[in-house]
Amino acid sequence: MTKQFAVVGSPIEHSKSPIIHQCAYRVLGLDWNYSAVEITEGRLRQFVETVDDNWQGLSVTMPLKLEATRLAKNLDEVAELTGITNTLLKLEDGWRGFNTDVYGIQKALEGPLSQERPAVTIIGSGATALSAVFAVHLSNPASEISLIARNRQAAKEVMLRAAKAGFKIKLKTFRLFGFKVSRADIVISTLPSSTLDKFATRIGRRFAAKPRGVLLDVAYHPWPSKFASAWQSNSLQVVSGIEMLIFQAIAQIRIFTSVDSGQELPNERAVELAIRDSLGLI
Question: What global pTM score does this model have?
């Protein structure tokens, strides 16, 4: 039996997950299939209940991450903390949910997050923003975290999740966007590409609003976004969402092979380099 895996969500046509996973499977000598399946909101349970026994795991992207949490029979510690599931693994007693987005963000910002007390501004209030909040806190509990969001209700839910885990974040409006961005050591944008175009223009025009820290722009298609270009024009470090994608995928492959996101793959560095090569990064 050839094991079948896939990334599921909508839209899905630009996903690089099939390239990443198939490349890793080749390096690991695994005769597995990995595809992309378009599944719209509300349809995830129907999909998993109708697939055959060849299907062993799923990478879950928007807008299905909350549905995946509800579908899972049990959750790993990070998925439990965040309420966000981006990985499903079929076990004998049902589907188990994991969150590898947190690990992906931690690895993408490993250096910047090691600062003594970084000021971190996270833009957005969706599933990725929630994972970003926990990635920052778990990497460096001394971090000062601010959340800039338009959806106040969603933002309050993020704050409640943080409070339940024993830490606080500050909620800010977009009126303070320039102020918070210009004073942050790390900025994490979790919004779709082009959403922040007008703010990128303002950053370029106003000296007081110029950034000074590192940017992780989770959106990577197209790249660079205008927002990321605003950092590059100031000769500042920009981290593409591709970095997050690579490392969260490696954690998923660990789960698919050993049920343990902390168990390194055989020759994991070779897997990472092969993935980077397949994406044209080296």
Answer: 0.95
Are the C-beta atoms of 72 and 65 separated by less than 8 Å? Answer: no
Q: What does residue 233 show for φ and ψ, rounded to 5 degrees?
A: -70, -20
Over 108-150, what HEC string results?
HCCCHHHCCCCEEEEECCCHHHHHHHHHHHHHCCCCEEEEECC
Structure tokens at 90: 């079929």
Q: What share of the chain is helix, strand, coil (3-state, %, to 5)?
A: 45, 20, 35
Q: Which residues carry out catalysis?
A: 65
CA angle 198, 203, 209 (to 5 degrees): 130
Is residue 45 exposed (0-12), middle (13-18) or buried (19+ Cβ within 10 Å)?
middle
Q: For the domain 103-236, what is the CATH code?
A: 3.40.50.720
Which class is domain 4-99+242-278?
A: alpha beta
Strands, E, within the chain: which ranges?
Answer: 4-9, 33-38, 55-60, 74-75, 87-91, 94-98, 119-123, 144-148, 170-172, 186-189, 214-217, 238-240
List every span in the chain annotated with CATH 3.40.50.720: 103-236
Residues in the chain: 282
pLDDT tens digit sequence for 123-158? 999 999 999 999 999 999 999 999 999 999 999 999
Q: CATH 3.40.50.10860: which residues of the chain?
A: 4-99+242-278
